[in-house]
Amino acid sequence: MRGPRITLLGSHAKRLKDWLLGHPDSHERGAIILFRRISRSIKNLERSDRFLAVDIIEMNKDWVLESSKTHFKINMRKFPKIYFRCEQEGLELGFVHNHPSGINEFSVRDDVNEQNILHGLSRCNGINSFLISMILVDENWLARIRHGKDPERFQKIRHVSVLSDKIEIYGFETHDETQESLKRQEVAFGKPFNEKLQSLRVAVVGLGGTGSPTATMLARTGIGELIIIDGDALDKTNMNRVHGYTENDIGKKKAEALAHYINSLGLNVIVYPIPEYLGESSLSIDALSSADVVFGCTDDVQGRDYLNQAYSYYSQVLIDSGMAGNVEENVEGNPELRSQKGRVSCILPESGACLRCQRVITDQKLYNETTLKENPELLELDSKVLEEEYYIIGGTVQSPGIGPFTSITANNAVATLMNLINCFRKVPSDLRQDNIWIDFIHLHIHSNMPVQDKDCLYCGSNILLEKGEQTYRLGIPQLGKIPQNVS
Ligand SMILES: [Zn+2]
Ligand SMILES: [Zn+2]
Asked: Tell me, which fold does domain 5-170 have in CATH?
């Protein structure tokens, strides 16, 4: 089994580094990290445990009985208050220290300290407690986890990721041999790049014109685990732009057909199809919450709104792509493509404006979508009538779907993930990393400015991550109760 994953926000990592490396005499230092555990058992998919950092407490001199360059002794009496907070807020305890001597592994003393802290924790909060232990050596985060039921043993982790305006990954599994299919990619980005991708669990939501090329390209780039979610069946009208489906797949669920195709490629990827709609399936939300990175490729506003909430609750990277276009009649009465653009939005918990601030999701669009879904007969009405009588503005025009444009946009989305892991782009100063449009008519690239909302619930703070979902998935009762954490 691949171990649990640990995620720190960029601000956490910076605060910890400043503290741990900041002792005036270069003594060893420590800090508490409080984690929210997102644990999901998903049928047919490896159990997923993600530990998301939500708060940091520096161990100042009240905590330290004595210290030197090779050790520091903690005042254990300071811990019960922390244990109590963990229980009250449903958090897991983390302890991090540094090794100024440069020793690049956990020491025998660390073994003893971890078990002491865990014993105290188990006595207060019960044996279903975890202790996440981390060390910082040479800019490198190492981590391991112990459980109250078996405190002497520790579990290896899959990786530690740090999310700032990029994705840093530490402690990932390394291999001697590079897979044959990734050798040319290694020429560009090096071996660790491939190993980092292999360490990721990625979800793709929506498997049509942008989603199917996104998912197939992700598989080719060497992503370790791919969750593909879509409740739709393949239609013949999709065939001008989708990737990976054959004629035999028409009428079948896209998720299952695409998984079949990806499995036939002979790549080292685990693909897990969920043939259900996000808003109607607790399984898909649970699978979504287990991902490190989410690609939004849906064409519905409600689906995007769920993703926009998920990335803040679950400390995820959200890469959302969408198309915008419009066709008008020319003087001869023939259709003329007046505008056609592909957007890639790239949002991390502490970088980039969310999809609401980017105006990709608006209350008007949500209202239009729900009203038309509930009253499909309105689709027949003239746009003027819709606007005047039903307050639906610009809601029923079917946008064109053109294969090369949807494919370019999908590939640009996948390249955006690659750039987050190995920053190769030299972005011009008039472009924003979080919102990039390719205009296929005028052949230029531009960004839209987001609205500046400092109080935004999603991108303005980490309030959702800190508070947690409580009872319901994404805090929304219709999405059902969150299953009890399993140990
Ligand atoms: Zn140590
Ligand atoms: Zn926002």
From this structure: Cytidine Deaminase; domain 2 (3.40.140)
User: Do 180-479 and 5-170 have the same topology in CATH?
Assistant: no
Q: State whether the Cα torsion 147-153-154-155 is positive or negative.
A: negative
Residue in 467, 307, 322 with CA at minimum distance from that of residue 405: 322
| Tens-place pLDDT, residues 185-239 | 999 999 999 999 999 999 999 999 999 999 999 999 999 999 999 999 999 999 9
Model pLDDT for residues 5-53, shown as the tens digit of each residue: 999 999 999 999 999 999 999 999 999 999 999 998 888 888 889 999 9
Closest listed ligand to the CA of 135: 1
Q: Please tell me the distance between residue 380's alpha carbon and the centre of ligand 2 in angstroms.
A: 34
How many A from CA of 144 to the centre of ligand 1? 12
In CATH terms, the fold of domain 180-479 is Rossmann fold (3.40.50)
Give the Cα separation of 379 and 396 in Å (integer). 6
The set of residues, in sequence order, having a beta carbon less than 8 Å from that of 12 and lying 6+ positions away, is 33, 53, 56, 162
DSSP state of 164: S
- What is the distance in A from the centroid of ligand 2 to the CA of 217? 29
Q: Tell me the CA–centroid distance for residue 266 and ligand 1, in Å.
A: 43
Listed by start position, the domains of the chain span 5-170, 180-479
Ligand 2 centroid to residue 303 C-alpha, Å? 16
Ligand 2 center to 459 CA (angstroms): 4
